[in-house]
Amino acid sequence: MNLVQLGTSDLRVTPICLGTMTFGEQVAEADAHAILDRALERGINFIDTAEMYSVPARRETYGATESIIGRWFAKNPSARGKVVLATKVAGPSRGMPWVREGAGMTAQDIVRSCEGSLRRLQVDTIDLYQIHWPERNTPMFGSLYYDPAKERSQTSIHEQLEAMQRLVREGKVRHVGVSNETPYGVHEFVRLAEQHGLPRIATVQNVYCLVSRFLENGLDETMKRLDVSLLAYSPLGFGLLTGKYDEAGIDGPQTPRDARIGKFESVRGGRWGRPEALAAARRYNQLAREHGLAPARMALAFCYTKWQVASTIIGVRTLAQLDENLDAWGTTLSPELLAAIDKIRWEVRDPAN
């Protein structure tokens, strides 16, 4: 794999990033460390986590993923110099009072969260520090519409960038990014950074997969023109695009209960649990089989080969899953197959947006 540059930063990463939100909930620490070891062995130099992880978020596991990674760094001191480490500060509470008091995300909250992540990760510097979701009211995580009546913003983007600047000046953060953002948000972060000499975002981490391609309706142009890189998460649609739910469904007696949608009711109640999302996934999965591909391989190759994507974040529970995801690198999709994918999208649009 050739390394790719993230935005205008000096960060150069592999086009596949190891996501870690399963560590501490579905993946025990020893298994997580084995996955981290294998990822490095296979050439991956990019790890993404968040203060909120593991997922589904709950008080008992808040910060668990970062702590697991921190203990891996402690056991493997040389590993820190081999990886680009990304983590995220949680946005406003969203029903998680254990993250912080109050409903907002102040500049001081950003600083405190970063310092907490540094302690748990047992590192001095975070390479890419991202805002997990906007502080202002936006449609995200399955919501479709912006409602100005719900606006409760307490901290301006300018103030958020000033907090990031403090962290950069103190050597705690190298570069910054955002996640679950809109075209407006990306434009504002870049505009204010350039206008006031504040840290410029290098990346946007948003969902992108066959059943959720909404970012192609404008956000991709924004990122291209402003030189901000996409980190695509959920390339397998929380497992929908592996085919494991095609026959069993997401909430039936034969549903795999070791997988995220099958195991966690909170996930089934969200965008990935929509009947329309499963129906669309079944069509894509069948298309893959008709072209001699495993569904997961086609779904991953779709992300791996799209011009919009700088690095695809893969989340795994086992070494076998990690190897399968990495082995899909290099798979090409024929023009005929891509046309068939687009035909399905035209008919079903983005049911897991």
Automatic annotation (TrEMBL):
Keywords of this entry: Oxidoreductase
Question: Boundaries of each NADP-dependent oxidoreductase domain copy?
Answer: 15-344
Q: Which InterPro entries match?
A: AKR_Detox_Biosynth, NAD(P)_OxRdtase_dom_sf, NADP_OxRdtase_dom
Q: Would you indicate the residue range of the signal peptide? A: none
Q: Which domain of life, per UniProt?
A: Bacteria
Extract the SUPFAM superfamilies matched here. Answer: NAD(P)-linked oxidoreductase
Q: Does Manganese show up as a keyword for this record?
A: no
Show the Pfam families listed in the entry: Aldo_ket_red
Molecular function terms in GO for this entry? Answer: oxidoreductase activity
**What CDD domains has UniProt attached to this entry?**
AKR_Tas-like
Q: Does the keyword Oxidoreductase apply?
A: yes
Q: What is this protein called?
A: Aldo/keto reductase
Species of origin: Ramlibacter algicola
